[in-house]
């Protein structure tokens, strides 16, 4: 083992990994998310980490962040690998999947997908090069009922609640309301104004006002745009508030009906958790109706913890059918890493073991193995200590790993089994066929 | 939607994905594997998909298959991405992980890891460019007790049994037996002979005999090497059989003690499932004692379904400590894809939903949503139909997706709920607060 042979490993910026006790918490999170998604009848799929570059760049977005693949010792003249890249989200692969398997799927198709994605971005707080997303989407042929605009945020609300996060709100808006309102104001290019309004987080109301006037809006128009963006409320009452601004258009009416339906449907949820927020714009051009964005209340600058919305034609780049959809994506790594950094992830033991069976002596090793088998057969996670060491050493091992019980098979025939509760120190007789924690 | 805009998606060779009903089975497999690993006290970790090339090539093996990463529009002069590659197995990342977090882990460290890996190989039957492996390893400082040589195959036996696979055997050998036997025969380079013996699957006994004579072995030596390779048996009796060949060396004795211990420890497992097979060599140089290889009995040419063994110093490339280990890796994708191709994966419904709650009319939509909430609160996976269509259409949807029960909330106040069993057609009164399938 000379110095030269040792490659000292170092973390790679933007790629995170956790110690076993932290991973254990993350795994429980993933279990709960999956359970909630399935509780609402969503089916799991996974897609390869790799897509063809044609597919990844079909929408033209974030393409500079795509990681392409090349074999280490590939023939430089062989370009076959160069056509492959790692997916940068789960929406594009989902659209490709639906188009590719169109004839084998049943619609409306409700799926969830929990996978890693990769982006070659400059790492910074909340931005990773590899991270896990948990996506839920409904896609249908020709149209998607408004039912789902209300059901999707209800599911995400349940997920975020079950994770026990610090205070957050799931903010809802509707692009038709924005676009219809701007049209009612006589603005010629409402989409350009949506893009400007989306900068509220970055430049504030004053900055947005400035940009709007630069874009040719009158002071009155810009003022009304800002008035709309200030409206925020936990129920369908926001619709009346918007009405009081005195702007009208057919698209605005349609949008207000939709937003009112969604907020009324969610009226039973705890106050402040799901909020209509007219400042939310979600810059992406493919959203056409309801849009969602979740934020931590205590860290408003941290970026969204979930986001999504309704798109008129998700898979249009891949199939000549109209396939609208609606979905939401939870930024699992972004949420988890923030809580970990803030010291808010409470870790438990370093192993899933409930019982460590001690080995009293080499001769009675078989007894320990049989005891462990009996406990495992009853669903109890059980380790046998790996050698007949002195008992102090065996207890020390259980303590280090946070194993809550140590089991002592009899040291001689005819004696009873005993089990020690490591938290209280109490040691009592026990039967491997009936004992429970 | 002009023709030019549509990128028709096609499968990429070597990358597989499944329909929802198939993924559902794969997910159940993964759940069962994880449950069994945890039942024995192994802790989960995950490592990034990406490692530095220094780490990936530290052992020098399979390096030509490594996929390296490059951002799509990276500055050609910026070489930072070129130092990253996708991991090609889970053993190298595990070794790096242990070295990197050495001071924060407790030993013996028992971990499982279930992740995708990538290899830029030519795809063929049983060989994929992206596949999932399920690895279980124990690593310790300075030495790993022989206990684990018997426990690891017991765990894998339990996993493979629970998956309900077509007939297979888990074959065990010990490199010390091979090397010690060859030394006892007076062979000068036993490692070279191990590499030749490893070709038994490919060239048969005659071919191996030929190669041995080319390597300078006498006819008698080559004959003895082949005699040893023919020995196969389900219990510690193989040790006596090997003894009868009349070859002796200190290393052989040590190897026979270990092999005898492992086989005796596993004597309670069903006959033929775990077999000592002296023809197994596992070419990889880092194995030093017990080696494992699982095979389908009906498809002996298909390649191993799991493999592993004991290595004297796993993380030696990354840390100046001696860290021996022992582990086994299940080739999940290889097994699953084979069974799927053979028509042996029995798929169930296309969704996890147990109950579809119908919507009798738009006015009574709230009743349907409340009914679904009551069922979900009791842990029942429940969908509400997405609009107030005619009931035939709603039943048709349940039928298509394989949803076993359709729930009818009352069409008017005061009437009872009813539930229809889609398999039998029976429709009975039910209470959402107490009903179960």
From TrEMBL, chains A, B:
Q: What class of enzyme is it?
A: ligase
One Pfam family, short name: HGTP_anticodon
Show the NCBIfam families listed in the entry. hisS (TIGR00442)
- InterPro entries under this entry? aa-tRNA-synth_II, aa-tRNA-synth_II/BPL/LPL, Anticodon-bd, Anticodon-bd_dom_sf, His-tRNA-ligase, HisRS-like_core, HisRS/HisZ
Protein EC: 6.1.1.21
User: How is the subunit organization of this protein annotated in UniProt?
Assistant: Homodimer.
Which UniProt keywords are listed? Answer: Aminoacyl-tRNA synthetase, ATP-binding, Cytoplasm, Ligase, Nucleotide-binding, Protein biosynthesis
Family affiliation: Belongs to the class-II aminoacyl-tRNA synthetase family.
Name the catalysed reactions.
Answer: tRNA(His) + L-histidine + ATP = L-histidyl-tRNA(His) + AMP + diphosphate + H(+)
Q: Does Lipoprotein show up as a keyword for this record?
A: no
This protein is called Histidine--tRNA ligase
Q: Which domain of life is it from?
A: Bacteria
Write down the PANTHER family for this protein, in alphabetical order. Answer: HISTIDINE--TRNA LIGASE (PTHR11476:SF7), HISTIDYL-TRNA SYNTHETASE (PTHR11476)
What sequence ranges are listed for the domain Aminoacyl-transfer RNA synthetases class-II family profile?
33-360
Gene Ontology molecular functions: histidine-tRNA ligase activity
